[in-house]
């Protein structure tokens, strides 16, 4: 069937080309997201990959699978973006309300969340024999953030080897490098990512279990009441609060408490929290009611990293990618 589709696609049949590549689209987009850290940039890179594959189909010699050939194109498209520094502009470095001095300044202001719905039904969810990361960890915000801090070649090598499970020889062929160069880049990338990862932590409750449901209910109660003490009590002692594209980050219970206390009088109220999932983590669309119009307006999206029975990291995002999560811009307000 693949040979027949390939022959028809080479003859100019776009439907055959779509049938040949469609099953790989989801995993290619996830790969581009890991490379670029931005859902919108990943979608652009995916479209460029498919266009390049269509235009270059005659150059496919069949020495590898269609899937591997597409990964070669996608990875190199992402490397071109990274090397050209052609990133989307980010917001100016200013908080909308008075806030305490941050613990640190984040280095990945372009980071965006990735909807779990896009991870469903991937053509090849099982990584190769060389993979080191489980699928959930390999899409988590913490992992994607750590990958963004790697140089381009190290980033590509780490993802192809440790996430997708390609062998060193295969990665060398994909990237046009020597096998020794791949091995060296992988060693440096692993050291950098390992240093950024937290020590062994208790796993979160499984999605959909009563344990997770009870924890998330407490999160919603604390935030809709904006009870700072309750919010901080739900977080680990070394929790992080981040808010890309703003670079300000707060680390540790004292800094987090100080931050939420400072923004409390100026905050956009959390009138409704609509549950979604992002990066295999719990997330919510945050809505605020307009007193005049009576409707609820989407103001942000928050994603939490659960460690055991508490929150280890909370990341607030703008509403740019709301449509990918099926979150409407407005909802009917409360009639009470």
Automatic annotation (TrEMBL):
GO aspect biological process, one term: DNA-templated transcription initiation
- Please, which domain of life does this record's source organism belong to? Bacteria
Return the Pfam families for the record.
Sigma70_r2, Sigma70_r4_2
RNA polymerase sigma factor 70 region 4 type domain span: 142-191
Q: Which residues form the signal peptide?
A: none
Domain RNA polymerase sigma-70 region, by residue range, is: 22-87
Q: Gene3D superfamilies in the record, alphabetically?
A: 1.10.1740.10, 3.10.450.50, Winged helix-like DNA-binding domain superfamily/Winged helix DNA-binding domain
| Molecular function terms from GO | DNA binding; sigma factor activity
On whether Transcription regulation is a keyword of this UniProt record, the answer is yes
Give a yes or no for keyword Transcription regulation in this entry.
Answer: yes
Keywords linked to the UniProt accession? Sigma factor, Transcription, Transcription regulation
- PANTHER family linked: ECF RNA POLYMERASE SIGMA FACTOR SIGG, RNA POLYMERASE ECF-TYPE SIGMA FACTO
What binding partners and quaternary form does the record give? Interacts transiently with the RNA polymerase catalytic core formed by RpoA, RpoB, RpoC and RpoZ (2 alpha, 1 beta, 1 beta' and 1 omega subunit) to form the RNA polymerase holoenzyme that can initiate transcription.
Family listed: Belongs to the sigma-70 factor family. ECF subfamily.
Q: From the Swiss-Prot or TrEMBL record, give the protein name.
A: Sigma-70 family RNA polymerase sigma factor
